[in-house]
Structures are given as C-alpha cells and as structure tokens.
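Lecture notes, structural biology module. Today: joint structure prediction for complexes of four components.
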Amino acid sequence: MDQLPAREIECLLVLAGELHFGRTAARLGCSQSRVSQLVAALERRIGAKLVERTSRRVELTRFGAEFVGEVGPAYQRLVGVVGQARERARRGGLAEVRIGFQGTAYEEVIEALRRFKLHCQTSVVVTEVPYGSPFSAVLDGVVDCAVVELPVRDERLTVGFSFPPQDRLLAVGAEHPFARRERVDIEELASVDLIASTGEAPGYWLAAQVPPATPAGSEIRSTAGVATLQEGLTLVAGSEHALLLCRPFVERSRRGDVRYVPVSGMEASSQLGLVWRTDRTTAQLEYLARLLAEESARASSTG
Amino acid sequence: MDQLPAREIECLLVLAGELHFGRTAARLGCSQSRVSQLVAALERRIGAKLVERTSRRVELTRFGAEFVGEVGPAYQRLVGVVGQARERARRGGLAEVRIGFQGTAYEEVIEALRRFKLHCQTSVVVTEVPYGSPFSAVLDGVVDCAVVELPVRDERLTVGFSFPPQDRLLAVGAEHPFARRERVDIEELASVDLIASTGEAPGYWLAAQVPPATPAGSEIRSTAGVATLQEGLTLVAGSEHALLLCRPFVERSRRGDVRYVPVSGMEASSQLGLVWRTDRTTAQLEYLARLLAEESARASSTG
DNA sequence: ACGATCGATGAGCTAGGCTCATCGATGAGG
DNA sequence: CCTCATCGATGAGCCTAGCTCATCGATCGT
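The predicted structure, tokenised, for the full assembly:
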C-alpha cells in the first residue's frame, strides 16, 4: 500500500463543508483546479465516486458522505495529536512525567508536584525506586527524574535541586543498647554493625550512606545488606544491626519495634536531591526543580 | 498551520519499531538518507528531539516515545478507515444501508435483509416513509432504497425488483354496508367514498392507488385524504369512508373496528417493489434486489 | 590501528504538486 | 429563445519538494 493521501483527505473534508470548489480552494490556499484534481485523485484511489458535481451543484455521494463521516474524526484526531505535541514541545514538556522516590514522597514534594501538574498541565506518575539503586531507574529511562539521596557524581546525571542537609538518625531495635539514648556520637558507630545497601548504586554513593570509618579513623563494621528500606527496618527490629537513615524516611516509617536515635558529629550529613538524566534535561524538569526550591524555602521559614 | 506530515509520521512509526535507519528505509522503500531527512524534518516541525541517535545506537527520546504512543494509534486508525473505505468501494457497497418502508417491513423482506447484512457486512437501518410520499425520501437521499407501492415512472428512480402482483382489499368500518361482504366488485367502488393519499407522490402514482373511475367508466368519489396508513385506518373506522390497501399492509395492521374485503376485477393490482435512485445504483443494491427475488420465489413456492 | 557499520550531510535530479488558461455545461434573466 | 455569468474539468507547462547518490565522521569490535 502506498502513502496516506493527507492532502486529498484534507481537501475532501473542506469540500464537504463548503460544497464549492472555488471556496474550498481559497480555504486550502490553492487553485480551484488543484481541488478538482485532488478530489479526482482520491476518488481514483478509493475506487468510488465521492462527490457528485455538475457545474451548478456540488454534493456528496452517499458513499462520500459515509466516508467523510468516518475519515473526518480520524483525521481531526491525528491533526490534534500532532498539534498537541507541537504545543507541548514549545513549552518543553512531557504529557506524563514519571517521578521516582526512595521510599515514599514527603510533604514539601507533594505540594510542589501539585503546583507542577497544574501549571504544566501534566499528569504525574509516582514510582518507588529501590533504596539501594537510586540511579538505575533514571538512567534506564524508567522514570524521568527521581528524588534520591545524594551525592551524585555522574556525568550522565544532573542534580536539579538539593534539599538542605539533614541530620541522620540511627535506627536500632527496641532491645539494642542505644535504644534509649538521647544521642549517639558518630565515633560510637564503630561499635555497631551497620546495614549496607545492596543494589546497583556506585561505590561512592554506598560509602556516603554507610561510611567505612569514623572521622577519627575507627573502622565501621557492616556485615549485612538490604535492598529496600522496609527490609532494613525488619532486619533492625530483630537483631543487633543498626541502620543509618535521614529524617524524611523516618517520618514515614514509624514502627513500634524500632527506635530512632539522632547521630551527632556527622560531617557528610544526609541530603536529598532531584536528579535526572543530563541528556534529557528539559525546561519542564528545571521548572519542577524551581518549584521544589520554593517549597523547600517555604517549609524551612515556617518550620 | 500547514499540511499533515504523513510521510514523516509513517517514517517515525516504522523507525520506532526498527530502531535502525537502514532497515526502516528498506521497509519504507526509500533510501537511508531519506529516513534521516524525514525524521529531522518531523523533529523540526514538532520542535523537539524525537530520536536519540548515534552511529551505534538509535533510541526514542522520552518525548519521542510519548509522541509515538499517541500518534501511532491515531495514524493507524486513519489508515484503517481509508483502507476499509477502499475495500467497501471494491465490493461496491456502503457500511450502512438505510431502507425505507411504507408502513412496516414484512417477512420475506426481513429474511432477505438478514442475509444481506450477513453477506455484505453491512448495517441496515429501517425507516418508515410516509404512505403518501413513497419516493421523496429516496430522491432526497434520506434512504438508500425503499420498498414501496408501484408503479414508478421516473427517470431518476430504478425499480430493482418487483414483487408479484397482489389483490387489493377494501378497508371499511365495522358498520359499513360492505363490512360483512365476501367480495366487492370493482364497479361497486363507485358507491363508496375512497380515501386518497396526500403527499408528494406524483399524480400517476396517486391515480394508480385510488383509480379516478371504474373500468366501466363510473367516477369514484374521493373527498378525504390522509398522509399515513394509520391515519387512514382511523378515519375508516369512524366514518363511511373506505380505503384501498394491498395485502401486506393489512396483515400488519389488523384492528377490531375495521373490516377488510377483497376487491375483484381490479386490473391494476397492487404491486410492491424495491426502488432506488438511478444515479446511485450500486452492486450492493442490485444484490439486495436479487436476494428479494430469491426470497419472493421461495415464499410463493412454499406458500 | 584498522576495518566495518551506521547516521548525517550536501549536491543534484526528477516526478509530483501546482497554476494558468481555456472549455463545456448549466441555470438565470431579459 | 438567446445571452450572459458561474462553475467544474482538463491539458500544458512550470517549479518545488521529495528523493537518491556519494561521501564524511563517529563509534565499536578485533
């Protein structure tokens, strides 16, 4: 089969409305003879008379009317889709933005997303990404961006916005020696068995989450690894293991058999950020980053 | 806005499946460079990168994937509609055939329509046409054909099939002098007041339905006119008026306050036929006529 | 380092898309 | 009945857009 005769269809649709070759030509911005040729060509292609025409009257054949009734909506839809795409491209956005989160989304982000959807007329799909593989979903293109733990040191990824650093908390079981402490100093981490993340995260990221040693140089043990936050908490609850977390995750995962103790003296404190693939930077994502910045500023000023 | 870029869209859709410019070109039956140009043109038109391509890898942009997801179905639908129209034209038919009836449809026709729908994969819409204007709906194109009382003497109309002639019946009120008669001779019509049809029917047709005089030359009175069969029967029931009908209509409109008496000696007996606009003759309508002929033959042999 | 593969690009050809001029048909008006 | 005006069809011819060919540069495997 050969090519879709877009011009001929367009011509027929206009002619069906005008029922006049001259006016149709004017509306199409071409000559009357071209209209005549286009209609004839379409009729030849379809293999049936579509328009009954004398020098005094133009009317659709019964078959032509039926054809117009079917082709019209289909054609208009296609034109519409292309037009919408153009419009979206002009504003530099996607119709559906997929955002990944480690764990779940938190308040500041939710509000930013609401404004984002409104302003960009975009639908937002929220997905959870594995705690231990914060970047792979972004790199694979499964999500368009993600709010994850920093740091990110990867040419392929861009950090659009970084939330302010936050203290880390140490999650321990209810029976753990630290369970009732007010604080834990970072040097004390040398005495616990920290849970590491298993996943496709790069080494520098893993090291940032679970430092291999205290600032003073004491080695930090780590004999267990988990893929998700929930796994980690479950492991903590029933063992001597401990888990380093940042506050937003804690707020979303309170449970009775786990205690959260602030850790003081941590140099590399926990920090969340919005990241996306550098080669897929768009105005839309940058706008989302700006919205996050605003919400973050608002939250820190009122809180 | 300018023309719908059908080739470019087609090209993108194929490329989205192949992810390879050379194979895409082969499938489109053009050169690789053309594919490159088409994609570039579409990207320029939309205003966004749709395909990420290096010399070693081709993949859709996030935006491109979204675009393909929307444009693909719309495009396929349009192609499908055009293809279906071609197919229908090849078999010479309409997707929806509208048939008009005076009064209602009767058994032989119903069965023929069933087979017609099946064979032509067509939907059939049945419409009632005014008894007194059997042709105008056909001429106006409101229906594609109609089963109506003959005769038809009009260049613009074609009779595809004529049912065998049938006796006429005289409908009279229950209190009418003829109400209990076995037969009525045509000469006796001079003594009744026949109801005429009012409508856009031509004079020859009206005269055939309600003859102006008996064969022997006696004038037949007609002081009332009705537009539909039901109106006529209602008028008959409460007056001295009488109505000439053909059998199929009678079978469908039995009522207690009206008697039907066969009329003998009528030269021009009642005859139904399938008519359509001559300038809209199609193989499909001719096929329907053939089906009616078959059903009619079957009915007369078994009955 | 080399060759193979693949997409981009520019030059150049040509068929298809379009216009112009004209014709014949049709209907209105005198 | 004749004339004029309107409208769609048609053929000749022009020109652009649609396409090919040849070539280049980038990239990956060996």
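Point to remember: The mean pLDDT of chain B is 87.
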